[in-house]
Amino acid sequence: MIDISQKEVWFVTGSQHLYGDEALQQVASHSEEVAKALNNSSHVPLKIVYKQLLTTPDEITQLMLEANSSQVCIGLIAWMHTFSPAKMWITGLNILKKPLVHLHTQFNAEIPWSSIDMDFMNLNQSAHGDREFGFMMTRMRKNRKVITGHWKSDAVQQKIGTWCRVAAGWADMQGAKIARLCDNMREVAVTEGDKVEAQMKFGFSVNGYDIPDLTKHFQQVGESEVKQLLDEYEASYDLTSALQKGGDKRSALEEAAKIELGLRSFLTDGGFKGFTDTFESLGTLKQLPGIAVQRLMADGYGFGAEGDWKTAALLRAMKVMNVGLDGGTSFMEDYTYHFGGDKSYVLGSHMLEICSSIAQSKPSCEIHPLSIGGKEDPVRLVFNTAPGNAINASLVDMGNRFRLLVNEVEAVKPLGDLPNLPVARVLWDAKPNLEIAATAWILGGGAHHTVYSQALTTEYMEDFAEMAGIELLVIDNDTRIRSFKDTLHANEVYYHLFQNGI
Questions:
Q1: Which helix (H) or strand (E) holds 394?
Q2: Would you say 305 and 449 are in contact if contact means Cβ atoms under 8 Å apart?
Q3: Which residues of the chain fall below pLDDT 70?
Q4: Is 4 left (phi over 0), alpha (psi -120 to 50) or beta?
Q5: Which of 137, 239, 288, 417 could form a disulfide with 243 if both were Cys (CB 3.0 to 4.6 A apart)?
């Protein structure tokens, strides 16, 4: 469902005419070589396209206009090979709507000690050319990522690749449609928010639909489609005996397949990239969508339970960033704790809807009662999650701004078997420990719903917050509650002044 390989990031280089044609030809040649190397890097998942050498205000402005209107360009990499007087960039930067990364590098890695002369110095002066460019963007309060180091290094290429993935997720958000099936879970606060402000800030829209809007899609599901999907279930998962052919719950699996096919048809027909539902408003649905939601997430759709549209939109963006990487990304919820003597853990799960992309092994397809919602027993995939580093991210509406919280965690093997827990789950060690992490999370207003990712790191979320221009709070091994409170207080002052234009 998600393909970012045809998206482009444009590589532009700044200079000026004072150096003469010969020098500018060298600058252009060097720039093409750098762009080509980045395009061929295994760390970069999409196309890096060298556009041109920019030496005048008009050239810069025209390039920015072209970037804004391009359907394939999702961002720019800018490098000042020589000195490029930054007032030339003001008009262009003012109108640029795409994300920008400032690559602070130089063509040569090392100084040629025995041969260096002033010609070399004049040609290779990004050490102060990039500072001039950096000043202007800081003076203009332009959000951007700065990457410093030699362009051939893995570290620099990895950072560029990370930024490219985030830029792809951000581009995917622009104009994205999230379907809210029915409304929010009644009386719940954190899953609510200002949908108009969100569309202005992030670019995605959220609109409500009722179960009758899905009815025609369920009615159009044919028996052959259901049979084909049941065959896929049998090939992909370990079905319990009750769900196998001839089993006493086989009809429930058939109903789950119809729900998946109907939901897929609705989402495809409406051009949606994410959706929510709520067990309080299921209408004519015989069971709460379980395996359907899990599989739709695995195919790249964003999802939020109980009407949580912010998490659905964030999950979709992170799914785009995740494409081609090891590890999965899923809707998640902090469910229950294990307070141990030496170490405490969080057991993350949900009633049904955990994405199979984070499954450690082949999931089991099971049916169990659900003591909420008042419907028939739903079918779901049950599995454990592989150990390893991960993050939990939560997007919340603070009233005067959006805040993104990120907690770095480490998934661990469950401390015991879970024979009676009929849901997908993951046990994690929250950094720096559960006591500090949970305290900071609560102080920061983080939601109980999150996006859990084994593939992405805090750097992705930092780049995303930068592109969106929103607040970021990180809880990691360095977090201390006293300093975290100070950050919260300082941020309140900053955003109050910012919102009021002071």
A1: strand 388-397
A2: yes
A3: 499-502
A4: alpha
A5: 239
Predicted pLDDT of residue 20: 84
Q: How would DSSP label each residue in 220-281? A: T--HHHHHHHHHHHHHHSEE-GGGSTT-TTHHHHHHHHHHHHHHHHHHHHHT-SEEEE-TT-
Say if CB 331 and CB 297 are below 8 A apart. yes
Question: Can you give the pLDDT at residue 374?
Answer: 81
Cβ-proximal residues to 137 (8 Å cutoff; 6+ apart), any chain: 93, 100, 102, 144
* Distance, CA of 230 to CA of 258 (rounded, Å): 10
Side chain identity at 61, as an amino acid letter? T
Q: Tell me the C-alpha distance between 471 and 367, whole Å.
A: 41
Structure tokens at 213: 């809007």
Residues 494 and 470: beta-carbon distance below 8 Å: no
CA nearest neighbour of 286 among 170, 374, 201: 374
pLDDT of the residue at 100: 98
Whether the bond between 419 and the residue before it is cis, its omega within 30 degrees of 0, is: no
What's the predicted TM-score (pTM) here? Answer: 0.95
- Alpha carbons 457 and 161: distance in angstroms, whole number: 13
Q: How far apart are alpha carbons 310 and 197 in whole angstroms?
A: 12
Spatial distance between the Cα atoms of 494 and 472, rounded to a whole number of angstroms = 13
Q: What is the CA radius of gyration of the chain?
A: 25
The whole-number pLDDT of residue 500 equals 66
**Residue 256 · residue 378 · CB < 8 Å:** yes
pLDDT at 501: 64
**3-state DSSP assignment of residue 71:** coil
Overall size of the chain counted in residues: 502
The DSSP call for residue 359 is B
C-alpha count within 13 angstroms, C-beta hemisphere, residue 323: 22
Strands (E), 256-377: 274-277, 302-305, 329-339, 344-349, 364-367
Q: What is the 3-state secondary structure (H, E, C) of 90-109?
A: HHHHHHCCCCEEEEECCCCC
| Cα gap 89→57, rounded to integer Å | 6
- Decide: 270 and 177 in contact? Cβ < 8 Å: yes
pLDDT of residue 281: 79
